[in-house]
Amino acid sequence: MQKPSLPSGTRDFGPKAFEQRRYVMGIMEKVFRLHGFQGIETPALENLSTLQGKYGDEGDQLLFKVLNSGDFLSKVKEEDKANIQSKELLPKISNRGLRYDLTVPLARFVVMNSNEIQFPFKRYQMQPVWRADRPQKGRYREFWQCDVDVVGTKSVVSEAELIDIYLEVFKVLDLGVIVKINHRGILDSFLSIAGNQENWNSFMQAIDKFDKIGLEGVNTELQNRGLSHMLEVWEAYSKLSEQQDITQLIEGLRNIPELQGEELELGILALTEVLELVTDKSSVMWDLRLARGLSYYTGCVFEVLPNDQRLDERFNIGSIGGGGRYDNLTGIFGMKDVAGVGVSFGLDRIMDTLAAIEKEEEVTNQNGILFCCMDKESLPLAVTLSRELRSFGLSAEIYPGAVKLKKQLDYANQRNKQWAVIIGESERESGELSVKNLVSGEQSKVVQSELRNHF
Amino acid sequence: MQKPSLPSGTRDFGPKAFEQRRYVMGIMEKVFRLHGFQGIETPALENLSTLQGKYGDEGDQLLFKVLNSGDFLSKVKEEDKANIQSKELLPKISNRGLRYDLTVPLARFVVMNSNEIQFPFKRYQMQPVWRADRPQKGRYREFWQCDVDVVGTKSVVSEAELIDIYLEVFKVLDLGVIVKINHRGILDSFLSIAGNQENWNSFMQAIDKFDKIGLEGVNTELQNRGLSHMLEVWEAYSKLSEQQDITQLIEGLRNIPELQGEELELGILALTEVLELVTDKSSVMWDLRLARGLSYYTGCVFEVLPNDQRLDERFNIGSIGGGGRYDNLTGIFGMKDVAGVGVSFGLDRIMDTLAAIEKEEEVTNQNGILFCCMDKESLPLAVTLSRELRSFGLSAEIYPGAVKLKKQLDYANQRNKQWAVIIGESERESGELSVKNLVSGEQSKVVQSELRNHF
Known about the structure:
Two copies of one chain form a homodimer.
Chain A: H1 15-34, E1 38-39, E2 45-47, H2 48-51, H3 56-62, E3 65-66, H4 78-81, H5 86-93, E4 96-98, H6 103-112, E5 121-130, E6 142-151, H7 157-172, E7 177-183, H8 184-188, H9 191-194, H10 197-207, H11 210-224, H12 231-240, H13 246-254, H14 262-277, E8 284-286, E9 300-306, E10 321-326, E11 340-346, H15 347-356, H16 361-364, E12 369-373, H17 379-391, E13 396-398, H18 405-414, E14 419-423, H19 425-430, E15 432-437, E16 443-447, H20 451-454
Parallel strand pairs in A: 1-5, 7-8, 12-13, 12-14
Antiparallel strand pairs in A: 2-4, 3-4, 5-6, 6-11, 7-9, 9-10, 10-11, 14-15, 15-16
């Protein structure tokens, strides 16, 4: 018989990993809720008509498609089968796919429930998504997104709140981060130098590689893309983005004549207002080069990166979160004028980053009580006593079956139990139980009625 | 543009439903953990080789299969395409499917991680599963199972613990239930009367319908299936199952000569021992006719049904949970001698049942604070104050943007906020904020530094 295996790019989460993820998601959820966000969940299965065409050509390729059930070829005529190709066959045999992100499902949800939703709609959603990407370090085919969005408002209060949420979550997780922000308006101001939309798109693709290939690399890219006429402004702009002082940065921007216009001023104003409202300004950086997901966003864009001294210099996982303002979220489903802004936490990369600084204190604490019975006759008493302890909120379980004490204590130690309560014939008769502290090794006799007070 | 829709048999969970499900799952998880169970999660995507052949022919039909990504037809030769049929094409274009239950993934997990797992392995798992079934009331294509299993022990302590867990969870949920139990040994004792395995299987299928078609119906079924020779014993057995007194029930079983044998005595012994250890015996019923999932189970079997006076008589949702002992869980993956016992909570049917008795108290509580700013200049103060309140664990948010007060208060009421803090120019200058109690309607002035103590 073949040994079972997992599909590439998917993972099991055993007890330890489950506990760590639960802890991190619990912190996120707590922060989201304190800020008044409400949870929703959407199905893993969506109609392909909902998903297709929303993530670009590459995204369509990466969608997991689900075969129609039963005799899925029944809609294909016999005469059409010969020489049929994947692209032609696909729409005949698959109507559904797996959720690719949480933003398109949010847009669908808002459109389908617009009568019941109170706007501004502040929702969080923490669920897995699926992408048929090539698996590699930090990239999975089934991975978790934790999204927070405010739908139905254009106020910058929401941008500032989302940045605060990022910083609050990572503060509790004790992970140093930097939130980079930029504004679509600033980048749009390059349109007139680019000459046309196509050039501008090409320019965006080039500068988006800055983190990987550096300034030299981007310059070469621009030349190869026939954008030499943009080099001069780009270099001035790029140099300016190292300016830490916001006032001087804005002054510098206003000193590049080619960029002037309404869009630039809109961007400057929005970012200034956002920064003013952010609580911990020292962890936020205005990064002129940040060019995230541009087909999608219309205002502020965000990205979060680990920025922690305990991380090895070679540790490079990329961003652990990102998002931005979209002023036409539901337009893809025919509902106009719904503005919103949202950010995503990349749970899996966050877990990988926390693992890299070995934050595992939570797991090693010993707690809980194991009842060890020396004979079958002691089991009913153990059931009664463990139930009583649980009713006071203590974790208490009985080793199933009266096996050798060593085996039972081994289990207690492996499961990090703090206490073992040993019951045999003499304990039943005397009413005094043997209680062993598994941390110190001390053993004592405790009267049955005093058991609860002992812990 | 087409209005978006959801695939049949799937659902969104908006804020209200999300909150109710979270509450119920939170109670389950708390009980599981107090009993020392550890959480795990497995991927939604499994290899088809893991899933197929585990749920019978009907199960294989109901598996959702996922298309291989990219050019999925590339493995099919051009000359083979003509006249190809679904069954023949399927293995060439799909290697993966969606999780069908949580038990086969558990078996796979145990086999793949047998070196790291400490046995007995007490695990809980709460995740969605998918079945391409015909959707109807109480039956969905994407639905949640909440499973608790003890793997690696034959002790009846585990059966008793799982029954206690059922009863503890439903007690906290304030839903009356009855746990039915039976034992495979009792049913196996019919084998000699049946004559052969095939007849016995047919007998099981017939009596499994008892809940739907009653005694008359089962009798007719038995005749139609050529099992008239079993009628007499079946009728005596069926009558006996109405006996409430366990001692008399056992005596009655021992008085049916055709059933005597080792299997019967094994079943009687196990059930007696289980019942002895169960805490609340009044909610447990030994139901001789319970014949649940027999291809699978080898010992005790369980089923939970709602049993609550507040439910309308016509409310009939079937079982809201079930399970049993399997003494060869991992055998399907080539690992022998791993015994276990487990039960499942059917979350969706539990939610439907709770909704039928209208238990919605949790949702109507008013809590949380909304900051309403009368002008943009008040936003930074609101940010500072709301952050301080959150640091004390209070849910506090700012209405995004200084829009008309009425609109802001409407939002506060719709979101069931308890308090509104109103800040405008005069409040900023005097340092006294207007605080409105949205439950009583009272409004008062509160000094900024006293705000936290006011809530």
